[in-house]
Amino acid sequence: MDIIYRKNRVRDWASEGLGSGQLNKALVHHKGEFYIASENTALEETLIFYSSPTGDIKNYCEVGGGKRITLDDVLSDFEAHLYDNLYYHLS
Q1: For labeling, which of 24, 46, 72, 75 is most exposed (least CB within 10 Å)?
Q2: In angstroms, rounded to a whole number, what is the distance separating the alpha carbons of residues 37 and 52?
Q3: Which are the contacts of 59, defined by CB distance < 8 A and separation ≥ 6?
Q4: Of 51, 42, 35, 56, which is closest to residue 12 (Cα–Cα)?
Q5: Residue 66 to residue 81: CA distance in whole angstroms
Q6: Taking the complete model, does pTM exceed 0.90, yes or no?
Q7: pLDDT number for residue 20
Q8: Is 41 helix (H, G, I), strand (E, B) or coil?
Q9: Domain range annotation of the chain
Q10: Is 90 helix (H, G, I), strand (E, B) or coil?
Q11: Per-residue pLDDT tens for 39-54?
C-alpha cells in the first residue's frame, strides 16, 4: 500500500458555520487499484471508495471503512479495512 497524498481539513464545517467536524482524505494505491479513504470527523466514520489515479471517486459505493474508524486507523492497516468478498470492480 502506497499513500499518494493525504489532505487534512479538505472541508471544515466549523469555519463554514455548519457545526463541528471536518473532512480528511487520502489517495491510496493498493494492489494495482486506487482508492480514496475519506474521514468525516462529525459522523465519526471513514469510508473507502474506488478512485482514479488522480483521486476522482469512480463510484460512491463504499468498498471499505466504517463507523468509529479514523483515517489513521485505515492507513495503518489498509487491507484489513477493505470489505470482504469484493467480487466486483466498479469502473
Answers
A1: 72
A2: 13
A3: 49, 50, 90
A4: 42
A5: 8
A6: no
A7: 77
A8: coil
A9: 2-81
A10: coil
A11: 998 889 999 999 999 9
